[in-house]
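Collaborator request, handled under Task 6.
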Amino acid sequence: PETPKTNFELKRHPVMMDHPLPQVLNYRLPNRPLTPLYEVPLEARMPIFPYFESPSDSCFMGVAVVGPPNAGKSTLVNTIIGQKVLAVSRKVNTTNNTIEALKTDDKTQMLFYDTPGILSTHGPRTNAISTKGWTQVHSADFTLFVVDSIKVLRNDVRTACKRLQKLLEPQSQQITEAQLEGESDSQFSQRQNLASSTIPAALVMTKVDLVKDRRSLRHKVNELHEYAKFEKVFYVSAEHNYNVEQVYSFLKEKAPEGEWLYHPQQVTNLSDVEKVEQIIREELLNWYHEELPYSWKLRTVGWTPYLDGTLRIDTEVLVHSQIQIGIFLGKQSRTVKKVCESAKAKIIQLYQRPVKLVLKAKLAKDHLTKEVKRNQNLKVSHPRLESITQFPKETLNLLSGNS
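Structure tokens returned to the collaborator:
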């Protein structure tokens, strides 16, 4: 029988890769990762920008954005900057740490401190979160006190206004007038409290597009003025970009002269890993209820670019029990798939490249025990530490700081 003819030529399918010459053909290469899997490079863990010099007559201003939870602080900062940098959800305390957002315009650089919501509760967690907001008031040059226009004024807001007045009121402008004749001690102290000086802060009433009764809004502003003497009052709607430009123009006029602290192209102090974790946390708050998403922690273990431009991100969600793993996955893993789809769409919009997001649930106890065992097994001394033992006694004293 006749032997069949064998063709030893490799069968490849040429693909035109938008080359100007039609004679040039590029062959499709197999997709492969450009970096090792389950590793996060340094560029993704910290923001890296080139060296820059501040222009002459530059202005710099730090603005602390404080207020009760769900007042629209993060939405206001996102609208001022012009892009979504901060996570926003309908849950309380979506922002659990102070995040810096930047806007550089002409010769003015504005640094906004987006702080967690201020709560007057007795819980250890809420008290720890509330103190983060007050610490930024001292370091900032100006303060925006954001209040929801459609909510009823609670005692938390009134107490926060009183505290803000005491923190920002300069001691040199306090009343030194003597007590009048026939005036009691209580009347004199009451007159001192009512005649307090204006503080470097502005009251921002948000969500005014949802207000139906304008009189009630005016009564709220008048009541807040009794507890704190604000320099300016703004009525804004961050979602519809109403009067937000007036807030930024007012802050820009008050910016003092100073050198820039950040690169003009930088919009936040978050790294790429932290930005992705912010997006995932926002989706966890939207899809899961009660206190579960607040107790879960995120840990990015992989940041791998591929040859075709796809970025693979591996993130672990540290939970506290097997039951929470089942809640995280949902029935037939439907819930976690929806979280991945919605978070992946936002990450693709942020980086403008195809993204593959992988979410895995892991017990926090197992993670901690592995870290402890890993640290216990590190018994090999470093070569540099071994070389120190060869130094004379005087040099060792200098290295250890002993005189």
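The cover message to the collaborator said: "The mean pLDDT is 79. Residues 224 and 331 are 48 Å apart (CA to CA). Please let us know whether this matches your experimental observations."
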